[in-house]
Fold these 2 entries.
Entry 1:
Amino acid sequence: MGRGDRGGEGVSDEDSWRGVAAEEVNDLGTAVGAKLQARSRGLLGSLIRPRLLVSSAALALVVLQNLASLAGPLLIAAAIDRGIPAAINGDTSVLAWCIGGYAASAVANSLLLMAFLRLSARISQNVLLDLRARLFRHVQRLSLSFHESYTSGKVISRLTADMESIGKLFEDSLDNMFNAVLSLVFIGALLLILDVPLALVVMAGFVPLVLALRWFRRTSGRAYRRTRGAIAKVIVQFVETMNGIRAVQAFRREHRNESIMETENASYRDANYSAINAVAVFAASVRFIGNLSLAIVLGVGAWRVTGGSMELGVLTAFTLYLRRFYDPLDDLAQVANSYASASAALEKISGVLEEKPTVLEPANPKPLPPGGAIEFDQVEFRYSKDSPVVLPRFDLTIPAGQTVALVGATGAGKSTIAKLVARFYDPTAGSVRLSGVDLRDAADEDLRSKVVMVTQENFLFSGSVADNIAIGRPTATRGEIESAAAAVGAHEFIAALPDGYDTDVRKRGGRLSAGQRQLVAFARALLANPAVLVLDEATSSLDVPGERAVQAALETVLTDRTALIIAHRLSTVLIADRVLVVEGGRIVEDGSPADLVAEGRGEFAALHRAWLESLA
Ligand SMILES: Nc1ncnc2c1ncn2[C@@H]1O[C@H](COP(=O)(O)OP(=O)(O)OP(=O)(O)O)[C@@H](O)[C@H]1O
């Protein structure tokens, strides 16, 4: 079982929460929960730190904007208590100052708000850009073993749904959060200045508020972790169906897929319901506490005004401030909501970012000498700690320039041997050497230029046919691309495409057949000119002219290099210098095709006979 699969009830041993291991765990212990939160905070910090200066500027803007907006009620209090009585006595200057000041503060408020929103949008968009790029770069470098267990759907959900929820926190909530916190601080201070006893009545409301916030954080945190997991499952189901759409339609799997989707979709909805329910309870509690405080303040204030120990203007200002005190708390419920959702997303993303490639590049790489001799020295291999040994300990030497065909039943271990040569995995024990250098000591780039693997699917990237061939050597000129295509016999059909070499392979008219895709892959390999070619021959059979074309191309590509071919065709095996028959992870026969056939008793001879019979 890979790391991405690990699920269940609890995470126990020391480091088992690291990476994506805790993703599927619903009930985290407090200690693990705290570690995950610290990791998320670390990621957030690393995103904000390079933008500290501009973030401080945004903070300064929002502080000024709050000050401007807070001046309003004070000016109204001054107008009622001093401006209007003075105006009644014929002096309108105080009232004029108050009104002018109010208008000025309103203008400043708007301008500062606009500047803050623009700046914070810039910060948030850059943070997201940075995070998306970081995640993409990291995921691309993670080893095959991670991708095999984590699945592309989950990666997509990290890159889309999770990213969006972090974006929402920055875009919708940052100003609300600053406003709310600053309003609380400033208004709290103003209330204390205006009237201490009334301010203390308001502060008493904080006790239930803090309790409600703690409850909300716990409940919504749990609910949002569930929503992140659920949306990932919806996307996984979507991606899997779309990737396998041919198989889905061929096997009439639509209904089955729809019912799986329905279940995942419903659990996403339910997870969201519980998250929103928590918001509803929290927001309602905040409002209730706010209104209750207002009623109490109004009662106590009215009693004091009638008793003469408080001015009416002060009470007016107090109630105005109190409204402003609780309004942002409503927003704070939204912020807490976005925060819970975003921190669940941050937890998942930071988990992926914490995953380390299992196939590591050496710190001090050794250059690979020319030549393509391959050596397996006491190699043993299993896919993961808890899976069985696939290749029991073995030795194998392939001299430079030899073409070796691997044959054997399905699941015998042929691809595994090939993947070790291309260093998609490292052996569990022993070493694989190329020209005498352990692959673990070679730089990635060096290795990729010396060993090229052509896989069965002959994957084409979006772009033109020429772009796809040039992947083999990005610096190649058009002439070199065309001569590589010509050498493998692909020039004719490419030239006949609607835009020749510039035809987009994803567009109608640019779609290539299986045999044509194979020829493009050969041209790509020929252009790359590696010392070692690892080839997983496509299993689907081609028509006779197609097969002949591919066969001729193959012979061209194999010239002057070491080749390891997982062979599915007799014609391929027969051009090999050497055949290795693999059975249960062991090499049971090793010799030239002619010798093995001549011996007549072994697996290969039987396979050879069966092949001949099938062709007869
Ligand atoms: N990523 C993986 N994780 C765990 N086990 C794997 C993985 N890939 C292959 N195996 C197991 O390793 C064994 C050898 O598989 P391998 O793909 O090398 O066989 P093969 O000879 O290439 O088969 P085929 O001809 O069908 O491609 C099989 O038992 C398979 O189940």
Entry 2:
Amino acid sequence: MITAENLHKRYGAKTAVDGISFQLQPGKVTGFLGPNGSGKSTTMRMGVGLDRPTSGSITIDGKPYAQHKAPMRTVGAVLDAGATHPGRTGKAHLKALAATHKISNKRVQEVIDLTGLGEAAGKRIKGYSLGMNQRLGIAAALLGDPAVLIFDEPVNGLDPEGVRWVRRLARDMAAEGRTVFFSSHLMSEMSQTADHLIVLGRGRLIADAPIHELLDAEDQQVLVRTEQAADLANALSADGVTITHLDAETLKVGGLDPRIIGRRALDTQVVLHELAPQETSLEDQYMKLTGDHVEYRSGGTTQEATQQEATQQEVTQ
Ligand SMILES: Nc1ncnc2c1ncn2[C@@H]1O[C@H](COP(=O)(O)OP(=O)(O)OP(=O)(O)O)[C@@H](O)[C@H]1O
């Protein structure tokens, strides 16, 4: 279990993490989302003792990382997959790490097999592709068979097969009862991998919820097709209901459950040709949540920026 309590980190005048609290549960993949510079890596680094909180705490199973006697057996982390000795072979690197925790060579071979490093394990790390480096980082994290896994952007630079592999690994590890904390800014990745999401914006917590809640909580839109669009719009109109006429026979309805729309149509003898709830994508949801918390914005027109701000206002209202 990973617990953050009022965690702060400042670098000089820069506040990287601004008073966040959360508790991650075992048996779940928790996705850690946020725009560039929002404090994800800093939080993870503090989790494994590579950075010290300015105030507050982050603990693993009730203790700061550094106080665990055999940290590799408690937490496996992939924070900077490139942090290896380039002249060593992957296997030598893993053996050296294993030796620090009295982990057997048998286990070294197990993680080599588990991560699909295969023959590459016998080659020097300097010749590794980004994907091989990621696999090596993950192999190192798994060496101590830890109950907590912290992966910072583990799918970065991986090919589609590699991405699928990491996704499956994260799910399998959680299914075994481990706590899996996984950062990415690929929303599609999160929607397929995470059970729970923690979203940061400019160092602050802006969401901490099961993924389905983030998707369902949104005012779901329902597409309705009928030749009696005007009659149906009349029957549905009420406070809190938004109705957009997309064309003469198509309405987009917000603020009403599709079952209620169907029931009203029946009551008013309107024949429906289509009644289709529109999926809110995690991507949309994420843009809405973080719209106001982006530190590094890519060049866009003023209109785009204004629209983004308008969207944010809708969310906060
Ligand atoms: N060692 C450091 N010294 C000074 N500022 C830092 C340091 N590390 C991080 N920062 C700043 O803290 C903020 C948070 O950075 P962090 O790397 O944690 O964000 P992130 O969410 O992981 O971003 P990304 O998705 O780009 O990796 C950024 O503004 C960053 O520039």
